[in-house]
Structure formats: C-alpha cells, structure tokens
C-alpha cells in the first residue's frame, strides 16, 4: 500500500523482482547503461512501513514510506515522509561505504565508513527521520530530514559501533572499545522506554545513547535486535538477555500474571537454555525479535529456539500457543531429514535410478514414518492447545510440563479421581477460589443453554399444526 514491497504500490502474495537494483551510476553520472556496474544486494532490512538494502558497492537504498534525506543541510527543510514503490538511492553517503542499516517506524540508523573503504572499525553512526521519542539519539526530539552523526559514535570516540537495530520508536547499538586488546563490548540504547525496552531500569525515554549497565562487561555481545517493545542480545559465550514488554513471554518464566505493568522487564533478564543444552545456548549465531516473540539461531546455524507470542505459528515449533520459555523450533523440517541429497555436479540421472531395491524400500518406510510423525505432532498440538485453554481458564496461567500429574509423567496407570483429590489437596485458597468461580460460571452457562434449548422446543411445539379431523 505504501510501496514497501518495492514495485507497484499494490499488495502481493508472491515474490516480485525489484528492477531498481539492476544498475547504478553516481548522482551526477552521464555514463550509459552498459558502462554502469551491475549490482548485487549484500543485506536487507525491514522497518514499520519501509524497507532498506545495501548493495555490493556500499550504497544505501530505501523504499516504502520513509524519510528521504535532503542532499544538503538547510534550515528550511521540514521533516516529511516520502512514499516510493521503487528503491531510491541515498546519495548523502556517496564516496563512503554503508556497512549496516536499521529502520523503525519512521527513523533510519546507518553505520557508514569514515573514509571510502571499510577497514573493520572505522564506522560512523548516522541517524535521521522521526524523532518524537528521541530514537535518533541526537539529544532532542526534533526530527531530521538529513543524516546526522550520533556524536558519541563519531570517528574519534573510543567506542566503535559494529551492530545496530531499531524497534518501532527505540534504537539499540553494540559497540566495542577501540583500540583495545580486550574483547569488551557494550549495548547502548535510546528512544522510547515506556515498556522498559531500553533496559535502563526505568520506563523513561532517553534522548541520547546510554549503556545498559546490567549487562556484564566481560561478555562479548555478537548480535542485537529490537521488537516493537522489547530488545534482546546474545553473547559469544551463548548467553541471551532480553528486556522490555511481555516479561512472562520468554523473558522470565516465573513472571506474575496480574497488574497493569506486570509484563514489563526494565532490566536485562538472562534467558535459560532448557533441555540437555543448558544453561547456555551452544555456538550462538544471531538473535531476532518480532512484534512479541524472539528467535535465536544457535548451534552454528543448525538449531533454532523461539519463545513469546505463538499466534499464527510464528514460533515454528508446530504449535500456535504462547511459549513462556525457549523451545526448539522444528528445524530442519521432518521431510528434509529423510530426503535424499541432490545430485552432485557431473552425476548421471540414470545412476540415481539404479538404486538397490532394499534402499528404495528403506526410503519408502522412512517417508511413511515421517508422515506418521507429522500426523502425531498435529494431533499432539491440538491436544496441547485444548489443555492449555482449559488450564488457563481454571488456573490463570498456561499449561506447562510441571503441571502434569506425576502418574502420567511416570507412564503408569492414571486414576483421575485420585489425581483430582490430590490436586484439590495441594491447591491454596486462591486456586480453590478460582476453581469455584470457574465451576459456578460453567454451571451457569450450562443452565442457560438448557433453558434456551427448552424454550426452542416449546416454541417449535406451538408452531406445529393441529391434527386434522380425518386423522382423528
């Protein structure tokens, strides 16, 4: 609708090629198309209603509903958003290399080389766009139409920025001390903080970057990402911290479920790794935040963990319910586990067709087994959703493994009357009161349905025709 897909301004259910990246010259170039360099995209980012890309020449492109920078600073320039269905190059950094970019709802933050080439640590942090909450980190709330340097991260500052991420109205940066022999890194945040997404111990907004002091300085942070109202970072040692909105959804499993702000974590919380991998996640690669969920890529890229809101199946674990602690995503898909490897270069198709009969039979059995597992997982997912709805309605929190009766966990016989008596005996006054309320509400609903059914029956009896005289 606002051009964020990069072609004709209309919605699309299928991928489209973005033609604007086929070639690029300098802003004043008169070179013909054949003389211009062909482009490849090295990285892409998505914001609220905009998209951004960096090509292999180090140029930045924006499209959608975005703040288009002016070519020169002028006091007459007023802030506005531009809508474009086609990618537009940002010429303000011509002669430099854009290395990283992030975008929020109305603001953009870019890491750009001080000189023409990238030497690994010579990055300057620029920001522009909407600044109603200080998300540009420039010390005020005035929006910018053109890129400005975030002064703590200029070319002479002792901290060198290497990662950047934007939430809807807040920003997070990772920086390391430079030059230094120690791998010391710090997460800096600024912008909107009403849900604790800045990790500063308050819900106040920040107009300038401040370090997140509760993170250990000994941990070298390798990835950061911002959701709408929360932030997550991961260290090279496999530790993951999160803070912001929805404390109960993955940020802190023992969170309370009452109160208006009970879901906010204003300080970084260490996320435990559950299962045989704990307490750290092995070989972490990247952390990514959605609107209200988090995904961690670890184990050198072979495993994924996810937690948070599970609507629409965004957690990738075969369920559509919320997860309050990290669970392993179903990766690779089951059918990929048994799929044969593709032919190597030079292999003959006929050689593939000459498989021994026992191999063909084994592949057939494995495929059938995979199908059975998928069916069982689908049924299990439905049963878990049903149990979670009932458990949540009765006890006010989602169903978890520790809530399962001991007799079921051990695999023995299950006496439902005995387990019900044990549950009532172990419940405190609050749980018993909630259970009584649920029972009374359910009983009232049943009586109401019975009454409606009886009224319908009486109405139908009154509408029935009287018997005719001949039939008497």
TrEMBL record:
Keyword Repeat: yes
Hydrolase in keyword set: no
Keywords, sorted A to Z: Receptor, Repeat
Sequence ranges of the RCC repeats: 58-114, 123-177, 185-237, 238-300
A UniProt-annotated Pfam family: RCC1
Source species, domain of life: Eukaryota
Coiled coil: none
Name of the molecule in the record: Ultraviolet-b receptor uvr8
Organism per entry: Nicotiana attenuata
Source species taxonomy: Eukaryota, Viridiplantae, Streptophyta, Embryophyta, Tracheophyta
């Amino acid at each position: 609708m606002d051009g964020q897909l990069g072609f004709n301004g209309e919605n699309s259910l299928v991928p489209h090629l973005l033609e604007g990246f086929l070639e690029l010259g300098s802003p004043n170039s008169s070179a013909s198309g054949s003389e211009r360099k062909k482009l490849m995209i090295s990285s892409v980012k998505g914001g609220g209603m905009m998209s951004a890309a960096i090509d292999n020449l180090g140029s930045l492109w924006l499209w959608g509903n975005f703040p288009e920078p002016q070519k020169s600073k002028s006091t007459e320039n007023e802030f506005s958003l531009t809508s474009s269905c086609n990618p537009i190059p940002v010429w303000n950094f011509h002669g430099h290399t854009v290395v990283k970019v992030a975008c929020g709802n109305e603001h953009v933050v870019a890491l750009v080389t001080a000189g023409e080439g990238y030497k690994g640590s010579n990055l300057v942090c620029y920001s522009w766009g909407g600044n109603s909450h200080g998300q540009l980190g420039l010390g005020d709330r005035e929006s910018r139409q053109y890129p400005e340097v975030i002064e703590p991260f200029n070319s002479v500052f002792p901290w060198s920025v290497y990662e950047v991420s934007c939430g809807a109205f807040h920003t997070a940066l990772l920086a390391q001390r430079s030059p230094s022999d120690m791998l010391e890194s710090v997460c800096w945040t600024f912008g909107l903080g009403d849900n604790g997404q800045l990790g500063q111990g308050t819900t106040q907004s920040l107009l300038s970057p401040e370090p997140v002091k509760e993170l250990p300085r000994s941990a070298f942070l390798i990835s950061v990402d911002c959701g709408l109202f929360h932030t997550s970072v991961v260290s090279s040692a496999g530790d993951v911290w999160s803070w912001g909105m929805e404390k109960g959804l993955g940020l802190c499993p023992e969170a309370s479920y009452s109160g208006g702000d009970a879901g906010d974590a204003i300080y970084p919380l260490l996320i435990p790794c559950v299962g045989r991998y704990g307490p750290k996640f092995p070989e972490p690669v990247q952390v990514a935040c959605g609107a209200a969920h988090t995904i961690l890529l670890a184990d050198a890229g072979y495993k994924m963990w996810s937690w948070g809101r599970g609507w629409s199946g965004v957690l990738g674990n075969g369920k559509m319910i919320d997860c309050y602690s990290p669970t392993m995503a179903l990766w690779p898909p089951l059918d990929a586990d048994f799929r044969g490897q593709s032919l190597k270069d030079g292999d003959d198709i006929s050689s593939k067709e000459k498989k021994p009969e026992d191999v063909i039979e084994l592949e057939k059995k494995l495929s059938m087994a995979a199908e059975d597992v998928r069916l069982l997982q689908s049924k299990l997912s439905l049963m878990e959703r049903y149990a979670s709805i009932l458990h949540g309605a009765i006890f006010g929190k989602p169903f978890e493994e520790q809530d399962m009766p001991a007799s079921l966990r051990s695999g023995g016989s299950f006496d439902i009357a005995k387990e019900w008596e044990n549950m009532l005996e172990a419940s405190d006054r609050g749980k018993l009161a909630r259970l009584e309320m649920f029972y009374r509400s359910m009983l009232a609903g049943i009586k109401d349905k019975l009454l409606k059914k009886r009224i319908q029956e009486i109405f139908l009896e009154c509408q029935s025709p009287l018997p005719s005289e001949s039939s008497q």
